[in-house]
Amino acid sequence: MTAIHWQAPDEEVMTQLGLRLRAGFDRHRSGVVYLIGDLGMGKTTLSRAIIRAFGWPHSVKSPTYTLVESYDFDTFEVHHFDLYRIDDPEELEYLGMDSYFDDRSICLIEWPDKGAPILPPADLSIRLIAQGDGRELVIQSHSTIGNTWCQDW
Tag placement on the chain: N or C end, fewer CB within 10 Å? Predict the structure, then answer.
């Protein structure tokens, strides 16, 4: 499957990446994106950039305490999960996690390792790695949907 390396020295470049990913999401508006990286690597910043790239006019909150924030657009939804505070993946079953994954939802999931094996597999994973003052993002597709999202890179 496709693997892309992207250099993000600052938040402006993360915003550009959000716009670029949004173009891929326009081709297929459902699927699962894993956002992987240590604390402070920019997972929420990237999620915010993607949601704003779709034209969300309001604030984009971090789901650190709520676990999920949902954004409803005309023909699809974006669900942004932060599973950092999950101690046991079975907690996700009690939250009705499976109801978020359908054919009109893009799910952005921070800390997906905390939800294994309950979570569906990723169509795309984005690993954020510290590199000097910036970040290197390794974008890896894991499915046909992920390949579609990466088509124009």
Answer: N
Please indicate, yes or no, whether the overall pTM of this predicted structure exceeds 0.90: yes
CATH code, domain carrying 100: 3.40.50.300
pLDDT per residue as tens digits for the range 53-70:
999 999 898 888 889 999
Tell me the two tokens of residue 119: 């979570």
d(CA 30, CA 133): 33
Sheet holding 124-131, edge to edge: 3-8, 134-141, 124-131, 31-36, 105-110, 77-82, 68-72
First to last CA, the chain: 13
Q: How many domains, the chain?
A: 1
**Which residues span the domain enclosing 64?**
3-149
